[in-house]
């Protein structure tokens, strides 16, 4: 159900949950001041309570009161990338950030989104928590219709059109004297080099820092076949590129193979369209570079192809 900006702000202030657009994906929003609305987000999504939420704000000054320690280069990162698809995990005062939001961790994640409607909501309502507006495990929603697919046509949605980036924010965390990427996202690792003087490494290791990364994600019902010995024609359906040919196959096109931004924008829509078409198995063309935004696209496809509910 389409709602106006004014209604979205009123509902949020009254402790309701609404879907709002961001430049990355649609978010399921609740005011930080309403614990029962935050609890409802977990129920609606079927999200495990050990998966913390990102706090979204309109202005960097709203972050400082929560934080116990500001890592080096934080101000430069914020000045360069905010508003935008960057999320930063910072150590916080546990008395000021409800444990429900942080899933009991001593840190919280913060982001200033760029979408004009998201910024207007944040300016009027104050800080809001917002996971992606999809059922847990499913592809994120990049259009209002996707939110309605997951939460019903009566669910209140502020329509901001199609999300321009189409992939979630990149999450950074400072540890061992270096920024690390906890989640690949709309900003490629290379884009941080000019600000940090180095390319932040992807955090991999035994210690789980980003609980959401443990879970199966972004997955349609359809089984995605990546790196398998099977030929595309033996499957009959291909998730591929519009400028390539796949004889005897129906193609679900991600876009042109030299346009990663376009492919990022289309990815979740195309994954969802596989289910609309009731496709059971699809062969994935993964012949593309493994750097820049492609790395995020590749990671999302691998997660979407995983048949186990957890990735460990
Ligand atoms: O682009 C985005 O970031 C979107 C839009 C709506 O802003 N939001 C989003 O939220 O993707 P969600 O809840 O789907 O993903 C948030 C991720 C999860 O993987 C979660 O584990 C991680 O952020 N996260 C949140 N707080 C954290 C913390 N304190 N430490 C480590 N990871 C954290
Ligand atoms: Mg999500």
Layout of SSEs?
Blueprint: E1 2-3, H1 5-13, E2 18-20, E3 27-31, H2 35-45, E4 54-56, H3 74-81, E5 86-91, H4 99-102, E6 107-111, H5 116-125, E7 128-129, H6 144-151, E8 157-158, E9 170-175, E10 178-183, H7 193-196, E11 223-225, H8 232-235, E12 237-240, E13 250-253, H9 260-276, E14 281-284, H10 292-305
Parallel strand pairs: 1-8, 4-6, 5-9, 11-14, 12-13, 12-14
Antiparallel strand pairs: 2-3, 3-7, 4-7, 5-6, 9-10
Helix pairs in contact: 1-5
The chain binds threonylcarbamoyladenylate and magnesium ion (MG).
Distance from first to last alpha carbon = 38 Å
Bound molecules: threonylcarbamoyladenylate, magnesium ion
Strand order of the largest sheet: 2-3-7-4-6-5-9-10
Q: What is Rg?
A: 19 Å
- The CATH class of the largest domain is identified as Alpha Beta
String of helices and strands: EHEEHEHEHEHEHEEEHEHEEHEH
- Total domain units: 2
Would you tell me the structural class of the helices and strands? alpha/beta
Task: Classify the fold: give the CATH topology of the largest domain.
Answer: DHBP synthase
User: Helix segment count?
Assistant: 10
> For the record, what is the CATH homologous superfamily label of the largest domain?
DHBP synthase
Multimerization status: single chain
Report the principal-axis shape: globular
**Number of strand segments:** 14
Q: Which blocks of ≥5 consecutive residues have pLDDT under 50? A: none
Could you give a short account of the major beta sheet? 8 strands, mixed
Kindly state the mean pLDDT as a whole number?
94
Under the CATH scheme, which architecture of the largest domain would be assigned?
Alpha-Beta Complex
């Amino acid at each position: 159900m389409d709602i106006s900006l004014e209604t979205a702000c009123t509902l949020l202030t009254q402790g309701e949950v609404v879907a709002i657009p961001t430049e990355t994906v649609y978010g399921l929003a609740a005011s930080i001041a309403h614990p029962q609305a935050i609890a409802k987000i977990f129920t609606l999504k079927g999200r495990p309570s050990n998966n913390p939420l990102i706090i979204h704000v309109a202005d960097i000054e709203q972050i400082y009161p929560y934080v116990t320690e500001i890592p080096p280069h934080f101000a430069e990162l914020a000045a360069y990338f905010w508003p935008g698809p960057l999320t930063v995990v910072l150590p916080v005062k546990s008395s000021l950030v409800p444990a429900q939001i942080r899933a009991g961790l001593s840190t919280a994640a913060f982001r200033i989104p760029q979408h004009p409607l998201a910024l207007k909501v944040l300016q009027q309502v104050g800080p809001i928590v917002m996971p992606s507006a999809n059922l847990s495990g499913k592809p994120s929603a990049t259009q209002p219709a996707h939110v309605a697919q997951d939460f019903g046509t009566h669910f209140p949605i502020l329509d901001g059109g199609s999300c321009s980036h189409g992939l979630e924010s990149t999450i950074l965390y400072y540890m061992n004297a270096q920024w690390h990427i906890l989640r690949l996202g709309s900003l490629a690792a290379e884009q941080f080099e000019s600000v940090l003087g180095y390319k932040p490494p992807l955090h991999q290791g035994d210690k789980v820092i980003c609980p959401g990364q443990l879970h199966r994600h972004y997955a349609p019902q359809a089984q995605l076949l990546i790196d398998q010995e099977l030929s595309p024609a033996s499957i009959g359906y291909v998730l591929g590129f519009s400028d390539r040919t796949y004889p005897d196959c129906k193609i679900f096109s991600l876009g042109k193979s030299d346009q990663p931004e376009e492919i990022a924008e289309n990815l979740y829509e195309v994954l969802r369209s596989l289910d609309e078409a009731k496709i059971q198995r699809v062969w994935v063309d993964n012949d593309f570079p493994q750097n820049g935004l492609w790395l995020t696209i590749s990671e999302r496809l691998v997660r979407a192809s995983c048949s186990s509910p957890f990735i460990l």
